[in-house]
């Protein structure tokens, strides 16, 4: 007997094929599209984002082709609180959030899963590119599309009620299958960037919500080298858009090294000063098997993977890299792997050389 599965359908090709595969496998599938914006026109359209009116129509058409019931769930208020307001608050605190990771954690696998289980569904299926077998999460064979990092914050309980039907497929295979199945989204471009920032201007979006407050840009010696209109407009590792008054003595580019929201200052310096080997994290979550071999860590979505060692002390996790990483930002997730298997994650609070 099949499972009762709620298929989250974003309107893209991945979730459409995922829903089709689950239905074809004999499960009782219902499609649901999440309405995440009170004003969908403010979200990106076409190739630029997700969660638009256009996407809801594409999701409905895909459900019709597959032959499954389809509903739209209004999650706008929850999305505003748990993703958008969290995004703004994190920047205000000098951290660099990952809204897609937060959306997976708080919306797709907390709010949606809770409602699905309450309605009698056994699991939620999504179009994420990651493998999930016996509750163990691991990387997709398509490394360019692998999303195990943004799923690394899910608990064991959430993973036990999740299905990722695309786990063994590459993006090219998914598109070819969508075309074969007659799904009109087969050639729809992937979404990019942040769906709730319509024009892609993150600094402008934050300025509207946090205001503009002139501040100083300092070099490592504390000398003023420029000015800005709000520290929240910067991220660690940023090189462009710094508007520094004078070049570095060696003529090389400067990068953002740190952001101090209380004093509203941004410190810049050479790329070498970004290199860190020690990373302090909080709230470790162990959602995979115990490490039995070498451990690696990924520090941002689609970022490099680093060999490392880790040590937990209470609610703190200390990670030591075997080679330096650059641009490590507080607020991002550190996801730990053994081989391709996720063993846990934690939130980065600071780093040092």
Automatic annotation (TrEMBL):
Task: Say if the entry is tagged with keyword GTP-binding.
Answer: no
What family classification does the UniProt entry report for this protein? Belongs to the MnmA/TRMU family.
**Region of interest (Interaction with tRNA), ranges:** 145-147
Q: Cite the binding residues for ATP.
A: 8-15, 34, 127
Coarse class of the primary localization is cytoplasm
Instruction: Name its cellular compartments.
Output: Cytoplasm
UniProt GO MF annotations: ATP binding; tRNA binding; tRNA-uridine 2-sulfurtransferase activity
Residues forming the catalytic site: 103 (nucleophile), 195 (cysteine persulfide intermediate)
* NCBIfam families hit by this protein: PRK00143.1, trmU
Its biological purpose is as follows: Catalyzes the 2-thiolation of uridine at the wobble position (U34) of tRNA, leading to the formation of s(2)U34.
| CDD domains assigned | MnmA_TRMU-like
Biological source species: Nonomuraea endophytica
Q: Keyword Nucleotide-binding: yes or no?
A: yes
Tell me what reaction this enzyme catalyses.
S-sulfanyl-L-cysteinyl-[protein] + uridine(34) in tRNA + AH2 + ATP = 2-thiouridine(34) in tRNA + L-cysteinyl-[protein] + A + AMP + diphosphate + H(+)
Could you say which EC number(s) this protein's record lists?
A: 2.8.1.13
Question: Enzyme class, one word?
Answer: transferase
Give me any GO biological process, just one: tRNA wobble position uridine thiolation
A Pfam family that this protein carries is: tRNA_Me_trans_C
Put simply, this protein is called tRNA-specific 2-thiouridylase MnmA
Q: Name the UniProt key words of this record, in alphabetical order.
A: ATP-binding, Cytoplasm, Disulfide bond, Nucleotide-binding, RNA-binding, Transferase, tRNA processing, tRNA-binding
**Record's GO cellular component terms:** cytoplasm
Pinpoint the tRNA-specific 2-thiouridylase MnmA-like C-terminal domain residues: 283-348
tRNA-specific 2-thiouridylase MnmA-like central domain mapped to chain residues: 204-269
Residue numbers marked as site, Interaction with tRNA: 128, 332
């Amino acid at each position: 007997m099949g499972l009762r599965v709620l298929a989250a359908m974003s309107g893209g090709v991945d979730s459409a094929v995922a829903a089709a595969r689950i239905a074809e496998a004999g499960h009782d599938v219902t499609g649901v599209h999440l309405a995440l914006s009170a004003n969908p026109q403010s979200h990106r359209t076409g190739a630029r984002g997700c969660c638009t009116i256009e996407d809801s129509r594409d999701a409905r058409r895909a459900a019709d082709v597959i032959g499954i019931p389809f509903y739209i769930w209004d999650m706008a208020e929850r999305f505003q609180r748990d993703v958008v307001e969290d995004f703004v608050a994190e920047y205000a605190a000098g951290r660099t959030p990952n809204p897609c990771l937060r959306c997976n954690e708080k919306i797709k696998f907390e709010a949606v899963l809770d409602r699905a289980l309450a309605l009698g569904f056994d699991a939620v299926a999504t179009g994420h590119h990651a493998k999930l077998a016996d509750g163990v999460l691991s990387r997709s064979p398509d490394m360019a599309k692998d999303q195990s990092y943004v799923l690394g914050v899910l608990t064991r309980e959430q993973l036990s009620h999740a299905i990722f039907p695309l786990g063994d497929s590459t993006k090219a295979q998914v598109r070819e299958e969508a075309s074969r199945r007659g799904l009109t989204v087969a050639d729809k471009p992937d979404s990019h960037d942040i769906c709730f920032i319509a024009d892609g201007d993150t600094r402008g979006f934050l300025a509207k919500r946090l205001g503009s407050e002139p501040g100083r840009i300092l070099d490592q010696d504390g000398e003023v080298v420029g000015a800005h209109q709000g520290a929240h407009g910067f991220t660690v590792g940023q090189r462009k858009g710094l508007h520094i008054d004078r070049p570095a003595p060696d003529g090389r580019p400067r990068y953002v090294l740190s952001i101090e929201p209380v004093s509203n200052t941004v410190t810049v310096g050479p790329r070498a000063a970004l290199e860190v080997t020690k990373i302090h994290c909080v709230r470790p979550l162990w959602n995979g098997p115990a490490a039995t071999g070498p451990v690696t860590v990924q520090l941002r979505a689609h970022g490099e993977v680093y060999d490392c060692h880790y040590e937990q002390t209470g609610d703190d996790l200390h990670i030591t890299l075997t080679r330096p990483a650059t641009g490590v930002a507080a607020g991002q997730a550190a996801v730990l792997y053994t081989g391709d298997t996720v063993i846990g994650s934690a939130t980065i609070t600071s780093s040092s050389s």
